[in-house]
Amino acid sequence: MIDSVMQKKNSRFSDMMASIVSNKAALFGLCFIIFLIIISLVVSISDLLGISILPYDPNLADMNNTLQPPSMEHLFGTDQLGRDILSRVIDGTKVSLTVGVSAVAISLTLGTLLGAAGGYYGGKLDNLIMRFMDIILSVPSILLAITFMAALGRGLDKAVLAIGLVSIPEYARIARSCVVSVKSNDYIQAAKVTGDSNLRIIMRHILPNITSPIVVRATLGISTAVLDCAALGFLGLGVQPPFAEWGDMLARSRAFIFTAPHTLIFPGLAITLTVLAFNLFGDGLRDALDPRSRRR
Asked: What is the pTM of this model?
């Protein structure tokens, strides 16, 4: 019995990976995401060990080399303080991924639990939860995130919390709709007859069967979180100087858009490619998890 279950899971995973590999756009997104994760992990581990693997110190100013164009010495050029842009873009990768993954973890966990509770119990609880979610959705997410940042203060941890909180309604609505569609199935009724508690039914029988749409939304949500992180950094509310963050790099290079466009191009490309990669992979993952939409 256990062997047949494991074989079924392995078969589903193999089918999903085959679908992603056959989708060139999704495969590109996955490869680029893995590349970013490796960079982020290597930089983070080297920082913990006190070892520098970057070409230059990303936070060290050198006023003798300000606004240098791309060259063999500085592949991405230098910024207005003479700092190596390549080193800062690489160092900023861990910030963007940390914010993206952490914020999505917060919103996914809270949103899924709230949506599942509302969809399962229904009635006044469902109405209360979903009307509160509607109120949050009525305010633009970036504006709400700025409001939270104004109340919480500046910093990376505050940015993670703000971005995570404003995204809760998206996961709550998805979880609620999925729970409503599956709670009347026979296996749920059988669990009730055998005496399983409501919490056990939700955690063991319902949530495992609604993971596909939530995982897909979480993948796409990371790209949104990266964009929100860049927007907060652009407004000066995210990671504080001298630490590198892509949005902050863009904001501080606005004055040099014509005299030194490379100071904007490379952090802008980093944001664009990262968001594109997560979106492409998310679309491919959706197709892979839904047999009806798989490419033939």
From this structure: 0.87
